[in-house]
Design goal:
homodimer; 641 residues; Glycosyltransferase; Maltose phosphorylase, domain 3; 3 domains; ten-stranded antiparallel sheet; six-stranded antiparallel sheet; 22 strands
Chain lengths: 641, 641
C-alpha cells in the first residue's frame, strides 16, 4: 500500500483526500499567502522561537546540566508546529530550503529525548518538577501530540526520517504510560489524541489508535479537577459521545472533536460519529460568529452558551479557526457533506487570512468583530512579547504564541483541503488558483484552475489530462450563492455540456470532463446584507455585509473625520454598491444629546446627511493604523427624508 | 470635639453625615433586611469563616508553630468585614449580642499581630513567604485596609477598644514601611487608602492621611507590573487625577476612587475632586448597567470600554455595588449633589438587595442581567465552596468570599446613608421606614418616617420634635419621578405649606417643619419602559421595565410551560399593567424556523397569541428555583394583527 501523503488520511470514509503534492496553489489569494508563509511567517516565527530560547530549551535539556526553562509549558509545541509547517511547505517548489533547518532541529530535539522516549524540556529532570506532575496545565501530552502531528507531516513529505523515529519512541512511551493498564489520566489540553490517530495512520500500528480512543473515551470521566472554569473547560464534564454541542475552551474542544472523528472513522463507531455531526450542527447554529470564529469568552477562551456571541468581547482565537477547519475537514471526509466545505471557506477567508498582517510579521491572536477603542496598549512580559491576545492590533509575537505557527502549518498544507475524490468523482471544494495533479483509477488527472477569486468571481478549469473516458468533476455550490450561475463547458471540438448550472441551495454541480475540456463560470460577487438570528443580543437590529465568502467591516479609517464609529447607522434601504472588491454602504451619522446615564437614555437620533462610505474586507482591517471597527452595523431606524 | 459616629466622617464638605445611631430603620424594606442581616447573614458568614479555618488562621499565627494557612490571601479581610458588620449592627436594639463575639475575635487577632504591628496570617513567618513579597496579589495592605475600616466602625460604636489599638499599631507599621522614605510601592488591590483616611478622621493623626495621599498618588506611576490584564487592572496605568473614567477591576477602581475623594476633601485638593466627579459622571454615562451594577468582564472583573455592557456576560459583582455606594456617598457629602443619592438608591434596590437570598444564607457574587441557561453547575473547590461567582443561582459561600461580608457591613451601616445635614437643612436622601433622631444647632430633632416604599409610594414623615423655630427639611426628588407629586403638610393646628410639590427633574423639595407637623405624599409607582443608549449592543431593540427605583426582570418561571425565554418579545404598544408590586407585560412568543447557522438566519417571526405575563423585581429573581431570566426584553418588531 502506498502511504498517502495527506495531512489527514483516514482508512475509510466517504471522500479520499488528495496527497499534499497533488495541489500546487500558484498565485491568486491563497498561493500568495502560501508564499508569504514561506518568505515571512516561517522565518519570523523561527526568529522568535530562537530569540526567546524555546529552541535552546532542547539544547539545554540535551546537555544534562541544570537550566532555567524558557517560555511557557507549551513552548516545545511551537517548535514542533513550525517543523510541521516547514515539512508541508517543503513540497512546494523552492521548499527544499527548509530541509536543513528541519535536520538541525531534529538533532537538537533528539538530544532532549529521554532514553524511555519521554520528551518535554520543562519537566522530569532532577532540577525540574516531575513528569506528569500537573495533568491540568502541564501540557506534556499536548506537546507530544504536536510532535506526533509534525512527525506525520515530516514522514509524509519525506523530510527527515530521524524526526519520525523521535515520534515513534515518544508515542510508545505515551502508550506505555497511559494505556489500559497505565495511568488513568488525560491531558488538560487535547492534542495527543489527533497526533496518535494520525501516527497510527502513518505506521499502521494499531496500539496508537487504541491509545487515542482511550484518551477520547476518558474525557468526561472527571479525571481532571473541577476548577474555576468548570470541567467543561477541558471537555471533562460529559463524555464526548454524550455531548450535543461543543463547550469549554474552544481550541481544546475542537482538537478533541477532530480526534474523536478520527477515532470514530477508524473504529467504525457510527454512534460517536453521529454525536460529532450533531455537535458540529449545533455549534454552527448557535455558537459561531459570522466570520466562522469560535469562542465567545476572553476569560476561559471558551464557547459561550447558545447565542452568547458578543461582538465587542468576541474572542475567536486564530487557533480556533485552524482547529475548526480540522474538525470540518474530518467530517467532510467521513460524510462527504459539502456544508463542511462551506464553513472551511468562511473560516479561511475571515479567520485564517485575517490573523497575519500583509507583511506576515504580526498576528491577531483574538479576532474581535467590534473594536471599540482604536488603541489599547498591549501587556508585554519581561521579554518584550505580548502576554495575551486581547489587545488591539496585530502583534509580533505572544507569550502564548500558539496562533502564528498554527496559521503557518495550515497555510503550508492548504493544498490538501482543496479537493477530494469519491469513487466516481473528483470534488472541488475550494476555488483556488493552481494546478491539480492526481490519479483516478491509476490514470493521471491534471487540472489547471485559473481564478482571481474572490477579487472577482471568474473561475476557469482546464482539463489538461484525464483518463481516456474522462472524469466526473463535482463542483461545490457555495452557500452564499444567490443566483443561478451557468457553466460554459467547451470541449476540444465543441460545446459538450453547456447546460450545467450552479443552483443556489444545491450541494454540487456535476460535469463530465475529458482532456482538453475548458470549463468556465463566473460567480456573482455582489455584496449583500446579512442579519443574525436575533437571539444574539449583540447583533440585534444590525446588519453585516458579505460578498461571497468575505465578511466586510466598517473601519473608522474610512469615515469622515468628524464621525465616530459608534454614531453611525447604515441605511439598508439605500442599497449597497459593489465594485469589484470595493463595497460601499450608505451611512447616516447622528448627533447625540448628552446623556445623564447609559440606562436612562432614550433614542435620540439627531439626523445628518447620508454619506457613501467604503467597507473593507474583514481580513484586511487594521492594516492602515489603529482604528475602531465593526462588522455588525446598526440599521437606521427612521430614514431621513 | 465630639467624635462623629458615622461610617464616613469628612472634616469638611457640603453635607454632614448622620451618626450611625441617628437613624433606626424599623420594618419596611430595609429594616427587614437589616434584621435578616443580623439574624441570618452574619451568623451564616461567621459559621463559614470558622468552618473554613479563616479564623483559626489567627490562632495558628498566634501559636508560633508552623501551620498551613487556610483560604486565599485575603481570608483575614473577611473576618475584619464581619467585625465591621457586627460593630455597626451593635448600635441597633438587640445588637449588643455581637460584643462578646467581637471581643473574642479581637483577642485572637491581637495574638496574631507581630510586635512591630504587622498583621497578616499568610506571610512573614519563617515557614511562610516573606512579607510584602508579592505586592500584586499578596493583599497584605488590602487586608490592613479592611482591618482599619473595621476598627473605625468598632471605635465609633464603642464596641471594643483593644481592637482599635490593633489598628493603631498596624497603621503605624504601614506608615513606617511605605511612607515618603519607605518602600515606593502600592498594593495590587486598593483598600488601605480608605482605611487610612478614615483612621485619620477617627484619631486626628495626620500621618495616616498623608500616607493615604501617598498611596493614592502612587497609583499610575507603574510600580506594579504590566501583566496580562494591563496596568489599568489595578489602577496603575494613569494617575488618579488624570483619569476621566473608571477602568480596570471594578472593586479596586471604586475603592481607590472612594479613598481619593476622601483625600481630596481632607487636603482641599479641588483638582483631584473635580477629576473624581468627572470619573463618576463618565462611568455612569457609559459603563454602568441599569441596575447600577458595574463591571462588564468576567475575566478581569473589570469595567469594559464605553458602552461595553453585555447582559449575558455582565459581571456586576455584588462588592462593586457596595463600593459604588461608598464612592457616591463620599461625593454626595463633598458636593451636596443629589444625583449621587439617586445612584445609591438604584444600587441598593437592584444590586445590594439582590445579592442575598430571602433566607440570607446564599448570595450572588456576580449579578447577571441575562441568565441564558437555567442551571450551570458551579465549580467547587476541595472544601466544598464555590470557586468563583459566575455560576447560576445564589451560592452559600465562595472561595473568594468578599461579597457576603461586604453586603453585610453595608446593610448594618445603612442608616448612615439615609439623610445628611447642611447648614440650614436636614436632607432626606432615601425614603426608608424608621426613626431619625439627631441634633440641629444642639437641639433635638426627631422624625418618624412611615412607609412601605417601594411596595407602594406612600411616605409620611412626622416631626415628633424640632427646635422651637422648626427646621428646614429637604426631600430628594427621585430621578425616576415622572409626574408632580403634591405634599400634604399638616401642622398641629392647620395646613402650613400645602403647596410644596415634588417636581420631576428638580433636586429637592424644601419644607419648613415644626414639632407636630405631619408630612405625607405618595409617589406614583407605575411601571414604565426604559430604553438604553443604543450604543450598548446588547440592549439594542430592547426595553427594560422599571417601577420607581426597581428594575424588573422576566423570569422563565412566569412563562407558559411551552415558551422559551429566548423566543419571547414584548409588545410595548400593548402597555404595562401595574398592580402594587406586580407588573405585567404583553408578550408574544414566536416559533422559529430551524436555522442552519446563527449568522445566516433571517428574522422569522412566526407569530403566536399575545399573553400577559408577570415580571419580578430583579432583586427577587432566582428565588423560585433554577430559571432563565432577562432584564432587557426585545421588542416585538411587527405587531400581530
Amino acid at each position: 500500500m502506498q502511504i498517502k501523503q495527506a495531512p489527514v488520511n483516514p482508512n475509510s470514509g466517504s471522500v479520499t483526500p488528495p496527497d499534499i503534492t497533488d495541489v500546487q496553489l500558484i498565485g491568486g489569494f491563497w498561493g500568495t499567502l502560501q508564499d508569504l508563509n514561506r518568505e515571512a511567517i516561517i522565518p519570523h516565527a523561527l526568529k522568535w522561537v530562537n530569540k526567546l530560547g524555546w529552541v535552546e530549551n532542547f539544547d539545554n535539556a540535551a546537555s544534562g546540566a541544570p537550566y532555567r526553562h524558557k517560555g511557557r509549558e507549551f513552548a516545545d509545541s511551537e517548535v514542533y508546529k513550525l517543523i510541521e509547517a516547514m515539512a508541508w511547505d517543503s513540497t512546494r517548489p523552492g521548499g527544499e530550503k527548509h530541509l536543513p533547518v528541519i535536520a538541525d532541529l531534529t538533532k537538537r530535539i533528539l538530544g532532549a529525548q529521554e532514553p524511555d522516549g519521554y520528551l518535554h524540556t520543562r519537566y522530569g529532570r532532577r532540577f525540574q518538577e516531575p513528569r506528569y506532575f500537573d495533568m491540568t496545565f502541564g501540557h506534556e501530552l499536548y506537546c507530544a501530540g504536536h510532535q506526533l502531528q509534525s512527525a506525520v507531516a515530516v514522514a509524509r513529505t519525506n523530510a527527515n526520517s530521524d524526526y519520525v523515529e523521535i515520534a515513534r519512541r515518544l508515542a510508545d512511551h505515551v502508550v506505555r504510560m497511559f494505556g489500559v493498564s497505565g495511568h488513568n489520566e488525560i491531558c488538560g489540553h487535547a492534542c495527543i489524541e489527533m497526533g496518535l490517530v494520525e501516527f497510527y495512520r502513518l505506521t499502521g500500528e494499531r496500539k496508537y489508535l487504541e491509545q487515542a480512543a482511550i484518551f477520547v473515551e476518558r474525557h468526561g470521566e472527571g479525571s481532571l479537577p473541577l476548577f474555576e472554569f468548570g470541567r467543561a473547560y477541558w471537555q471533562d464534564r460529559v463524555k464526548v459521545r454524550d455531548l450535543d454541542v461543543l463547550e469549554g475552551h474552544a481550541v481544546r474542544a475542537l482538537y478533541l472533536a477532530s480526534a474523536a472523528v478520527d477515532v470514530a472513522v477508524e473504529t467504525q463507531d457510527q454512534d460517536l460519529l453521529n454525536a460529532l455531526v450533531l455537535q458540529w450542527d449545533n455549534t454552527i447554529a448557535k455558537r459561531t460568529y459570522i466570520t466562522g470564529g469560535m469562542g465567545s469568552h476572553h476569560m476561559d477562551e471558551a464557547f459561550g452558551s447558545d447565542y452568547v456571541l458578543p461582538n465587542d468581547r468576541s474572542y475567536c482565537e486564530s487557533c480556533a479557526g485552524v482547529a475548526s477547519i480540522m474538525f470540518s475537514w474530518r467530517l467532510l471526509l467521513a460524510t462527504g457533506e459539502k456544508k463542511y466545505a462551506d464553513l472551511i471557506e468562511r473560516t479561511l477567508y475571515n479567520v485564517v487570512a485575517t490573523a497575519p498582517s500583509r507583511e506576515g510579521t504580526s498576528f491577531f491572536y483574538a479576532n474581535t468583530l467590534h473594536q471599540r477603542v482604536a488603541h489599547t496598549e498591549p501587556a508585554f512580559n519581561d521579554e518584550g512579547v505580548v502576554i495575551r491576545g486581547g489587545a488591539s492590533g496585530r502583534q509580533e509575537w505572544f507569550e502564548v504564541s500558539c496562533c502564528p505557527p498554527n496559521v503557518s502549518r495550515l497555510l503550508a498544507s492548504l493544498g490538501g483541503y482543496v479537493f477530494g475524490t469519491q469513487e466516481n468523482s473528483l470534488n472541488i471544494y475550494q476555488y483556488m488558483a493552481g494546478r491539480i495533479e492526481t490519479k483516478a483509477d491509476q490514470k493521471s488527472v491534471v487540472l489547471q484552475v485559473t481564478t482571481n477569486f474572490p477579487v472577482d468571481g471568474k473561475v476557469s478549469i482546464e482539463a489538461l489530462e484525464t483518463p481516456p473516458d474522462g472524469i466526473t468533476l463535482k463542483l461545490r455550490v457555495p452557500h452564499w450563492l444567490t443566483n443561478q450561475v451557468p457553466i460554459e463547458h467547451l470541449g476540444p471540438e465543441s460545446e459538450t455540456s453547456g447546460n450545467a448550472v450552479f443552483v443556489p441551495g444545491e450541494d454540487f454541480v456535476e460535469l463530465k470532463v475529458s482532456t482538453g475540456d475548458q470549463i468556465s463560470f463566473e460567480f456573482e460577487l455582489v455584496a449583500k446584507y446579512v442579519r443574525a438570528d436575533d437571539r444574539v443580543d449583540a447583533s440585534r437590529g444590525c446588519v453585516a455585509v458579505m460578498r461571497g465568502p468575505l465578511v466586510y467591516a466598517l473601519e473608522s479609517t474610512d469615515l469622515p473625520d468628524a464621525w465616530d464609529l459608534s454614531d453611525v447607522y447604515v441605511s439598508t434601504g439605500a442599497g449597497l454598491i459593489t465594485d469589484g472588491m470595493d463595497v460601499k454602504v450608505h451611512l447616516q451619522h447622528v448627533e447625540r444629546k448628552k446623556e445623564a446615564s447609559v440606562f436612562d437614555a432614550q433614542e435620540c437620533h439627531g439626523s445628518s446627511e447620508m454619506q457613501v462610505v467604503s467597507l473593507v474586507p474583514y481580513f484586511d482591517w487594521a492594516e492602515r493604523g489603529a482604528s475602531t471597527m465593526r462588522v455588525w452595523i446598526p440599521e437606521v431606524l427612521h430614514e431621513v427624508n
